[in-house]
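User: Reviewer 2 asked us to show a designed sequence for the structure in our supplementary figure. I'm pasting the structure tokens here. Could you produce the per-position amino acids so we can include them in the response letter?
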């Protein structure tokens, strides 16, 4: 048995990986031996050793190579975000627009449609229909759209590199075709950097890198090639450095070979399994079409079993981590509503569940965050089905199950603290299940406020500025409150309560997440035991004094 909280956490994360990988491998193994063979070849081509490095080092290497091959894991949003961050950092650092973005998701024959969309001549819906996106690619559109949005804003050319038959062609055929497209792009755009997003298996030594070398020899040309992988399983678990709360790590495998680690490996395999199940249900929305999977569903309906399984498995993993046994019969009284548009108003206002004003605030919050857990009715509201959102709601549900927590009262100050506590519980739960999840800390808010001094702001920027200042004001107020004898406080400043209401409870959420994030840091530093985490989840909160004590404990922990 593990002897420390950190050891227990590592054991939990290994268990999450083993289960997710087994489930994903069963799906792949059952559908294609060819993919399994490609996977094995890819794994064999990976360097066995690495050293930790920095983003600056990676960007310096990128500057010295003409072709950058980025290995994508198509169902994982953080994989595509990793490329977007790399693009943004390189373009901003070099102050250049000489970058071509080459995407496997598009067929080369669809280039006119790509150009038309980037030029604003095609609407998003018309573009997706023109290239038959749902059939020819089908992976979550919003994950890739952000790359195109960046290209459009920076006026960077985007090219498709897939064959006419796309995924129906053998991988080596697509490699040779992609190599020709990439070198054609280098000839069309002399002096440009060619940054290519393509499935990670294409980056095995004998696949696209070899095809590029062959095509260069055939044309009598040259071009230095660099590879960037992300979230490789073996590298995550072989690191000698203990797990940290850092959102991103950079590994140098060779001088022209890197790996970005921004998501734990079980998250990528869970994203794949979730996507497969939703796809087979005909439910995964790949466009903005409102008709796509925009309905409420209950977890006990047969067709949504896999969402049920995913959600409840997170609840059980968290319960196991804090060493609490839960009877299966205790987890039968909740349901999930999903609507990409946030169509929850009727549900929230019927039978007095929420007033119309509160319902609008809850919907606003769910629309921004993708999830909102309503403790009073054991309801999960989802506008975005993601593992982070399910993990957050799972933690809040477990908390409500163990403590009979209620998220509303007759007192506005108490309600504020209850939202803070609920957000803290959601963050610690999601950080346990996904240690790479990002969160603003107090020092980030201070840095932003310092940078914003003297800057002229838009109305949206002014609201963000008010929020940043409000977090710092709350921090000063809390320090004074904690310094008072007994540490008891009766009412928050009215301005903070009003801002929280005006921003659909955003202030209380970011404060709570900040506290939950800090608690996770204490856990991995072995400064907070499982006993204290269990106490947090089980502690009953019947009054303002009780919720104030819990928030005070979390805040005092952050100040130490």
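Assistant: Here is a per-position design you can include in the supplement:
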């Amino acid at each position: 048995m593990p002897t420390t909280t950190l050891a227990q956490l590592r054991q939990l994360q290994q268990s999450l990986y083993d289960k997710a990988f087994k489930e994903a491998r069963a799906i792949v193994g059952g559908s294609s031996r060819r993919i399994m063979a490609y996977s094995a070849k890819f794994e064999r081509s990976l360097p066995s050793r690495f050293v930790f490095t920095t983003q600056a080092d990676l960007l310096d290497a990128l500057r010295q190579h003409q072709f950058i091959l980025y290995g994508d894991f198509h169902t994982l949003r953080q994989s595509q975000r990793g490329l977007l961050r790399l693009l943004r950092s390189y373009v901003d650092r070099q102050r250049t627009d000489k970058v071509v973005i080459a995407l496997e998701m598009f067929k080369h024959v669809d280039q006119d449609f790509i150009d038309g969309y980037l030029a604003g001549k095609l609407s998003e819906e018309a573009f997706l229909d023109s290239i038959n996106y749902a059939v020819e690619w089908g992976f979550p559109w919003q994950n890739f759209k952000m790359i195109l949005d960046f290209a459009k804003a920076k006026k960077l050319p985007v090219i498709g590199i897939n064959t006419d038959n796309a995924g129906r062609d053998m991988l080596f055929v697509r490699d040779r075709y992609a190599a020709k497209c990439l070198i054609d792009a280098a000839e069309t755009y002399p002096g440009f950097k060619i940054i290519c997003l393509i499935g990670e298996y294409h980056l095995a030594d004998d696949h696209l890198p070899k095809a590029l070398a062959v095509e260069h020899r055939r044309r009598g040309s040259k071009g230095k090639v660099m590879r960037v992988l992300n979230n490789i399983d073996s590298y995550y678990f072989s690191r000698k450095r203990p797990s940290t709360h850092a959102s991103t790590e950079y590994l140098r495998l060779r001088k022209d070979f890197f790996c970005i680690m921004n998501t734990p490996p079980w998250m990528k395999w869970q994203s794949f399994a979730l996507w497969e199940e939703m796809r087979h249900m005909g439910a995964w929305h790949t466009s903005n079409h409102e008709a796509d999977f925009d309905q409420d569903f209950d977890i006990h309906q047969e067709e949504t079993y896999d969402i049920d399984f995913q959600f409840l498995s997170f609840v059980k993993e968290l319960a196991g981590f804090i060493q609490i046994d839960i009877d299966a019969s205790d987890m039968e009284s909740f349901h999930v509503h999903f609507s990409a548009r946030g169509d929850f108003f009727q549900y929230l206002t019927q039978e007095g569940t929420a007033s119309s004003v509160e319902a609008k605030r809850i919907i606003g919050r769910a629309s921004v965050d993708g999830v909102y857990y309503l403790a009073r009715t054991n309801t999960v509201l989802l506008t975005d089905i993601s593992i982070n959102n399910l993990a957050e709601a799972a933690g809040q549900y477990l908390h409500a199950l163990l403590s009979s927590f209620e998220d509303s009262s007759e007192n506005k100050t108490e309600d504020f603290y209850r939202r803070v506590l609920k957000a803290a519980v959601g963050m610690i739960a999601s950080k346990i299940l996904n240690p790479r999840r990002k969160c603003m800390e107090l020092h980030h808010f201070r840095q932003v406020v310092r940078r914003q001094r003297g800057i002229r702001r838009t109305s949206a920027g002014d609201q963000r500025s008010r929020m940043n200042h409000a977090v710092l004001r709350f921090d000063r107020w809390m320090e004074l409150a904690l310094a008072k004898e007994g540490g008891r406080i009766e009412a928050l400043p009215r301005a903070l309560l009003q801002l929280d209401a005006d921003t659909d409870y955003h202030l209380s959420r970011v404060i709570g997440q900040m506290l939950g994030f800090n608690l996770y840091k204490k856990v991995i530093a072995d400064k907070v035991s499982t006993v204290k985490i269990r106490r947090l989840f089980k502690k009953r909160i019947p009054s303002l004094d009780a919720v104030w004590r819990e928030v005070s404990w979390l805040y005092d922990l952050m100040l130490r």
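For the response letter, you might also mention the following. Residues 137 and 288 are 15 Å apart (CA to CA). The chain has three domains: 45-263, 294-408, 442-559.
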